[in-house]
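Hi, can you check this record?
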Amino acid sequence: MTRADTDDYLQLFLNDVPMMDVRAPVEFDKGAFPNTHNAPLLDDRQRELIGTRYKDAGQDEAIKLGLELMTPEIRAQRLQDWSSFTRANPAGYLYCFRGGLRSRTTQAWLRELGIDYPLIKGGYKAMRSFLIDELQKTVETVPFVILGGLTGSGKTRVLHKIHYQIDLEGLANHKGSAFGRSVDDYQPTPIDWENALSIACLKYRHRYPGAGLLLEDEGKLIGRLLVPIGFYRKMLHAPRILLQRSLEERVEITREDYVSLSWPEYQHHYADEAEHRFRDFWFGSLDRIQKRLGGERHSRLRAIVGSALNRLFAHGEAQGFDDALRILLDEYYDPMYRYQLESKPVDILFEGDESAIIEWAHANLRAMP
């Protein structure tokens, strides 16, 4: 049965519907959506040539050039890619930038193979606009509560034990500090990040209507990604709940996150280069905050970390990092966090340990005014 073209963007994103993006790779790489596959009608060079012809001579001449550039071999490869996607994703849709000529051309070529495959009306541009509007709707309608706590308190761990939350650091693929880079230092593009955040919020509003949303305390930037300004402003003024941990608990949590769990990831990802890469990660992270640490403390930390790395590589022992972590938490991160907290005129709704925070969240976030 032939399925109709659609402009029901809400259902596309709520249901993670597979989508085939027939824009050029340069467009896709700049910004796309989750659950999309790039199977371009035109490659980057073809798109550039046709675009120039369109500006100089109009649409008819641009279409004529497109047909000339599309050799039988290229056309056969395109059809193979598209038909493979349609077979693997019979409930999916295709789109281009505006749902125009490229989408209709792809549909027409597929029909020649006996494949009727629907397109998304308005294409990427309309879906992107929809997500921008929906993110603003989240800011306007959903109560935010911020999970705060001193660095190393394990806020992300606690967040994942609560239903009513979105993990911003997870979406941004960064742990939100100078030491927060992922093993491959990959973060999505700014547009991909905004799209993913909007979709996560859209799903949240439909999964938990009327509920408050718990977010971890973040700065303007998560790694290299800027939190959307309206979203961040609401976070700044939102009430907070504070997770309490002792310094020694925080040292242990930080060691687990940045050494015990991270080092095996480096070994798996980089193999023979793992030691070099992990050493660069630690020293590079310290060097990024050298000015704020001060020269003497920076040198002292580099010496402690250097010895700890040698012990880790030689004997697999992670405890050698504890002295450095204790200094970083107690002398650097804690004063900075306390200053920031004191400078924010916000309500503190609750303070407690992990179990108390989880209990409070499930009791109070399910329905908030």
Summary: The mean pLDDT is 93. The chain has two domains: 9-129, 142-364.
